[in-house]
Amino acid sequence: MGEELRIPEDLARVAQERGFPLDLVRRALALGFSPSLVAAQIRAGAQPEQVAAYLEEQERVRAGGEVHIPPEVQQLARQRRWPRELIERAVRAGISMDQVKGFLESGLRADQMERVVILRERARERGGPPVTLEWMNVKTEWGIRVKPGKKGLTLGSLNVGSYGDIPDYWPRQTEMPRGAAPNPLSPSMGYSIYEKAELWADHAADLYEEAIQRQWKPATHIPWDDIPPLPEPLEQALCQLCTYMCQNAMVISDTIGKWLKEMSYGYHEVKVYMATAGFDYARHLDVFRKRAYLNGVGMGRQSPGYYLRPIKDARRWTEASTMMFIFNTSFLMHLCQVGYYTARSEGDALIFSLTMQDLARQTAYGVEHLRYFLLRKPECRLEVDGYLQKIEAFFAYEDDKDSTLQEALVVLLGGGLGQEELKRGWQLLHRFRRRWIADYLWRLEAAGMPERRQHLFFYLRQWLPQPHEATATPGGMS
Amino acid sequence: MCNAVPHLGWSPLDKVASMYKMKEKPQVKRLLRRTSMDKDILYKLTHDEDLPPLRLDWLRPEDRARIEATRLRPTRKGLTIEQVEALTETVDVSDDYSARPKGAERHPAAARHSWYYPVRHETWADNVRLLYEEAVQRQWSSATDIPWHTLRPLPDDIERAWCQFATFLTEVEFIAGDAPGQWLERINPEWYEVKLFLLTQIMDEARHLDVFRKRALANGGGLLQESTGAGLRIILECQDFSEFSAIMHVFAEALVQTLFRSGEALAYSEAEKTIFRLCAQDESRHIAFGVMHLKHILETQPWRREEIHYYLDKIEGPLSLDIQSGHSAASPVFDEAIMVLAGGGRKNIDKGFDWLMQLRRRQVHEYVHRLEVAGLPERRYRLSPALRAFLET
Fold first, then answer.
1. Which architecture does CATH list for A196-472?
2. Contacts A–B by Cβ distance under 8 A
3. Considering only CB atoms, which chain A residues are within 8 Å of B353?
4. Where in chain A is the domain with CATH 1.10.620.20?
5. How far apart are CA A398 and CA A151, in angstroms?
6. Threshold 0.90, pTM exceeds
């Protein structure tokens, strides 16, 4: 028997615990089965008699004995076009005849079976797990120990040393995390955004953490019990507003989803922040739908969707982002302000204020990204101006063609259908829209496009605030 | 608070109107030039506050009766989508390609927004509403819900193994975020619940990317080797939703979930145990969706059975043991890191290999069991050879 047949301590212990004969263990090791494989078989409940029979057959064939192939296996092999040599090779590699039969019955082709045999032969030749551990010696920055701060262990705090080196151009088309060692075997994943200026915002990591900390739950955070129906027709008007919010949220979340796969891994902060933005819109769709159905009305009329199409149709992330996170969020903010202002219960007010909180984060990304983009690509200023012109024009087109949303807002703000109420609602709506346009222009100014005020689409100029007003109320809603 | 009238300020319209009356004065002319307003706009501004004719045709008298008859009450789980949708009809087929929310009145001139799946079965899973609500309730934060202070300095080989393990996971987890994202616009708004669920999954995967990056950089280590990653690209290459779901939810995420649930052996601190527990919880939801979607497809479109086998053949090949290395083709470095962690160091790699083999067996058995639950029991006999080897033992 010799030194190599000494049973490793662990294996001996397993065999003793399970009452498995040690001589069978020695015979298995002598045949070249690895200790780990033998231990695994014992743990799996292998019966000594079956093992003895199997080992006996293995010893016989490996000593040059003929492999006996039962007639039913031969028949199956003919049907599956397996050559006899393949079965013999499988058995000599340690695969039992029962297993061979099972593989045949399961419909394995000869080439697939050959792969199984090769695997088994290699494992036996190596006598254990084939490992290189080369990854232990790769040249990446080592010794990083980021500690949690008062906001916990945040994504932004990980940007230390080389891990905080965020290049202007990300050269990898793979999923390689920033700071890892590249693997030349990795395939391209088909991203299309590799330039930092095309998606970056300096506070994306902070916004991501804030979004997670401030996630709210439509099912349980809203005091649904305390939202009585509004007097008619206000309940219907509110449901019409909710319908619009649902439709908008759905299109925006689809659009975010579409762009995620375009963003390369070098700028993971933006990718993960966008995941939170998508989730925000999921909750908005959820909460406004629940509110619409809460008191029995349900969804109102859909919007024709003309205004949302340019957002979906965008061909550049900055285009999509500017439309979604500056123009559209400012418009949604305006709708939420109307909703909040007209709310007659804590529950309704909370729905709109929580939604505004999410929208404010998205606006923060949109503004910061546009600012970053324009600083690095000043030559694209007119291009961005064109995108804004487009979204403003489409908004005007829809607002003019379909007055459903406007009318609902008028009814909500006026408080009823009487002529005086409607008139009051109309006036108030204009005030809210002026506030919206002021906010929108102020956001663009913060992003570095103060000149948009001069180029504002004709239709929107009806709500253009005076210069001193725009600067006096920078945040829009008080 | 809610009824307080916000301070709207003095109406600039009044000012504009008065300016209009004084428009010939030089200072007003200057102001008008500065604000780019021409006389037409100024006229519009001063006259548009008159109430235009309103149609109000969106008001439906029948809603009045419904308001009196219906009032949803939150249950102990709050107000759930299930309750809301109990009031609505869920159709099986939709020929609407606009962005109309389910149940909304159709606008006759609505623009088409996308080509959606027109049949509910193509994307549906019966548990999707429940899974969405659960996902919203079980969100967690990698910044504050992981007890990072419990991390302790580890021997170099173990820390390196953890960092390699975390490098792989931070690398691959967001494939499962990118992939659902591309399906969102293909799902019909009529079955919006699937969209909502996929958005929760994207959120989950962002946290997974994030938490493993944090682990790699929080205990004196760093990121290590990128994996080969070839197998995972198949998830992005899918051309059909059921293909995507079978490959990602039922196969890939199932393997990862079994790993996370077995993670006790790989965890050296409470922080790591918590990471595994929370990630496994998320993955369970994704798998539950995939299994129930597959079940739904097989029940409603039984002719697709062989097609599903094709998708599984495709994914089982590249992600199963590779003929060249004997490791998972997706991640030889990942397997080695697991062996070092499970063995307790590079000296005990043989013990780690045993553990990895046991893990593989568990993964394959659980995968096959889930396929049985989904209504695909014959897959047991059609598994890729290398996976089948684990089933045999």
1. Orthogonal Bundle (1.10)
2. 479
3. 36, 128-129
4. 196-472
5. 44
6. no
